[in-house]
Design a protein that fits this description.
This protein has two domains: 230 residues, P-loop containing nucleotide triphosphate hydrolases (Rossmann fold), CATH 3.40.50.300; 55 residues. A six-stranded parallel sheet has the order 3-2-4-1-5-6, with helices on both faces. About 2% of the residues have low confidence. The protein has 13 helices and six strands. Helix 1 packs across helix 13 and helix 9 packs across helix 12. Helix 2 links the parallel strand 2 and strand 3. The chain is of the alpha/beta class and 306 residues long.
Length: 306
């Protein structure tokens, strides 16, 4: 398969707008790698790109799944590879844009061949405290413990589960991943104060534009869709008195949750990718587009894309 160029980074960096301009410059199409923008509806809550941005070049995998559907890295990989293949069939470069680390790694490395989950074992592990799970994984595989998010119960349980079921170190399964998609790309970020300010202003704009009503009208949704940042906080607001003070508290809570998410994304991309880092705080929009376009264009030519 021809190569894929990636523009990855934390939320609110402005990567969607920059990537659309880059795609316009190099004649590419965009594949979204956002775990929540793939769902239809809740456009404000999931911070989907604006209509003008989407109109610049074809975008794929945005708003294509029902919120009733459960998503996974494996499902994303399957759908993304189809979209990428179609883009390549038109002689164009595919640019994958997003901040969902597991989805992106499913493309760059494939999927782990670890053993299937064992419901009984998982139930026993889920009874342990977070502290006990951390200590257990440290005892089984310190290398894995250095790379897994130790505050994420699900990932801790899965790493321990792999070891106990296969009698191999959890991290050893990573060597079985295959790089069947040649890739290059950039990891974009901003200085912390600037990024946090952009996050805070975006959340405020969401409320000004009607995110409360959007969430109020949302129907039942899958387990994965229900993990959208801000959904729980808005539902709690809707269940209580909608006083001005309560709304301000809700805004602040979502801002904090989003900042924490951005911090986790930064950590992930710094550890998990070899993409060229690019500090957008040091560049204008035009400068960033020019620099990334040069990288994407050179990569596209090398991979045989027009």
């Amino acid at each position: 398969m021809r190569g894929v160029f990636f523009v990855v980074g934390p939320t609110a960096t402005g990567k969607s707008e920059i990537a659309a301009d880059v795609a316009t410059e190099v004649g590419a199409e965009i594949v979204s790698a956002d775990a929540f923008q793939i769902y239809r509806g809740l456009d404000l809550l999931t911070a989907k790109p604006e209509t003008g941005t989407l109109a610049k070049v074809p975008h794929h995998l945005i708003g294509t799944m029902s919120i009733l559907d459960k998503m996974s890295a494996a499902k994303f990989r399957e759908r993304a590879l189809v979209a990428i293949s179609e883009i390549h069939s038109r002689g164009k470069l595919a640019i994958v844009v997003g901040g969902s680390g597991l989805y992106i790694k499913a493309l760059t490395h494939g999927l782990s061949s670890g053993p299937a989950a064992d419901p009984a074992l998982r139930a026993r592990l889920n009874e342990l405290s977070l502290h006990d799970l951390q200590n257990k994984l440290l005892g089984l595989d310190p290398e894995a413990a250095s790379k897994v998010d130790l505050k994420n119960r699900r990932r801790l349980v899965r790493a321990i589960e792999i070891h106990l079921l296969s009698r191999q170190k959890p991290w050893s399964h990573r060597t079985e991943w295959t790089r069947d998609v040649p890739s290059s790309g950039v990891f974009v970020f901003r200085e912390r104060d600037e990024l946090y300010d952009r996050i805070n202003r975006r959340v405020e704009a969401m409320f000004e534009n009607g995110v409360i009503e959007e969430a109020r009208n949302a129907s039942a949704m899958s387990e994965t869709a229900s993990k959208m940042i801000g959904l729980r906080e808005i539902r709690e607001l809707l269940d209580g008195p909608a006083a001005a003070g309560s709304i301000l508290q809700c805004v602040a809570a979502i801002q904090q949750a989003t900042r924490r998410y951005a911090k986790r994304q930064l950590t992930w991309f710094r550890r998990q990718t070899n993409f060229q880092p690019l500090n957008l705080s040091l560049l204008s929009q035009n400068e960033a587009v020019k620099e990334i376009s040069q990288l994407a264009g050179s990569f596209g030519v090398a991979q045989g894309n027009d």
